[in-house]
C-alpha cells in the first residue's frame, strides 16, 4: 500500500510539474520547516533581486521538498517550474571528476600520470622550467595554473573549442609549483575534459551525455548550449542599477567541462541521490562515488577545515562532514550541499550570478537540520553595483556641467565673442600637459583591472554588473568631453573688444 501511495504521489507531482503548477513536495511533519524555508527564500530573493529560483531537497533516497520561486523570464512573467533549465556553473566539475575516476577504474588512465601522457603538447613552465602536472593535481586544483586564467578562455562555438581553450595555457606561466598549494582554477577541469576526449576518442559532451547523464536518468539535462533543444531554459540575468537586467553572455564551448552542464532540480535530485548512496548503478558504484568525495590532504586546506576532492568541496563543520560546491556563470548560479551521514541533500539553481544562491542553499540545509539561520548576507556584485550606480550619478552631473560649459564656449565662438589664439610657447606646454593628464587617466582606467586582478575590461563587462560597463564608458565619455573643453579654452580667448568693453576702458565698436 505504501508503495502504491508513493507511485500515485509521484504521478500527480509529475503531471503538476509538467504544467508548471507543482506544489511543494513535503510531508506534514515538515510543514514548519518548509514554512521557514519559503519565507527565507522569498525574503532573500527579494533582497538579492534574483528573478527565479528552483529548490529541491532529497533525504534517504526520496525528494522530500521541491519548490520554485519567481520567474524564468521576468518580462513575460513565465514562472520557474521543476522542469526549468539552468546553467549549473562549476557544479559541473563533479561530473567531469567522476568521469575521470570511472575511466581510471576501466583501466584507461591513471590519475597519477602526467597530463602530457594524454596531451603531449601541453608543456607548462614555472619560473622558466618545464613542470610535470598529474591528473590528480588538475582534479584537486593544485596544478599551479593561476586562477585568473579564466580570463583567457576564448569565446567560441566551434567543435574544437575545448582544445583551443587548453592551448591558451601555453602562453601562461604557472603561478606556483605543481602539487605545492591549492589554487582554484576553473580551466583545470577543461584540461581534464580534453583528457577525456583523447582517451575515449569522442567529444567530451557526447561522452558525458551518454556515459554519465543517461545512466543516472538525467534525461532532461544537456552538456553545453549546442546540445540544447528545449524551450525550458531560463533567461539569464545580471544585477545592474539595483535590479535584474536581462543579459546574454558569449558562448564558451571550450569551458563546458568546468561549468556548462544545463539541468533542472528534478535531474539534480537524481544526481544527489546517487552521491548519497541511492540510485546506485553499475557504471557508478558506491565505492567510486565515495572515492570522488575523498579530499586531497596533500596540500593545506583552502579554507577552515575545507579540502577539495574530485569536483567537490569537503567541509567539516561541528563534527559533521558536508559535501558541497557552488557554481557561478555570468548569468546563472547554483549550489549543492549534502550531508552523507543523514543521507540529506539540498540543491538550488537560479538565473542570476549571485552569492545569495549559496547562502540560501546553506540556510535551507540549516533549517532542515533544525539549526538557527542568519540572514545577514551580502553579495559582492550587489556592492559593486551600488558603488557603480552612485559613481555614475556623480559622473552624470559632471557630464552635464562640462557639456554646458562646452556648449557655452562653442556658442561664444560662433557669436565671435571668443577668438582663436596662436598655438605657441606657453599654450603648447599647457596643451601638452592637458593631453598627458587626460591620456594617463584613461590608460590607468583601462589597465587597472589587468594590473590589480589580471583581468581585462572585456572579462569584467561579461561577468560584472551592467552598471560597471556603463560606468566604464561613462568615464571615458566624461574624459573626452573634459579634454575637448580644455582644448577649446587653451586654443581660444575672449574677444579683446569684449574684454575692453566690459572693463569700461575702451570700446572698439564705438564711433568716437
From TrEMBL:
Organism: Fictibacillus nanhaiensis
Transmembrane segments: 387-407, 428-448, 468-491
Main location: membrane
Gene3D superfamilies linked to this entry: DD-peptidase/beta-lactamase superfamily
Pfam families linked: Beta-lactamase
Protein's cellular compartments: Membrane
Name by which UniProt lists this protein: Beta-lactamase family protein
Domain Beta-lactamase-related: 38-354
Protein keywords: Membrane, Transmembrane, Transmembrane helix
InterPro entries tied to this protein: AmpC-like, Beta-lactam-related, Beta-lactam/transpept-like
